[in-house]
Specification:
By secondary structure, the chain is mostly beta strands. The protein is built from 1 helix and 4 strands.
Length: 70
Amino acid sequence: MGTYFDGGTNWSAGWGRFVNGKDLGHLRFGDATGDKKADLFVYELPNGKVSVRTNMGTYFNGGTTMITLP
C-alpha cells in the first residue's frame, strides 16, 4: 500500500485439492493477458485439460480451455 502491507487476499480459495498436484491437478499463476494481474492456470487430472482463468480484479472468470495434454 506504499508504506504498509494490507491484510492480503486469498486468491485460491476453494482450490485446495489442486495445490499439491496429487489429487485434482495443478494450479499456477502468471500474467496470461499482459494486464499485470496474476491469472490462474489450471491443469486438471486425469483429463489433462489446461485452462486459463483470467483475473477480473475481484474474481477469476470461468476459464478458457487452452489445450488438452495426453
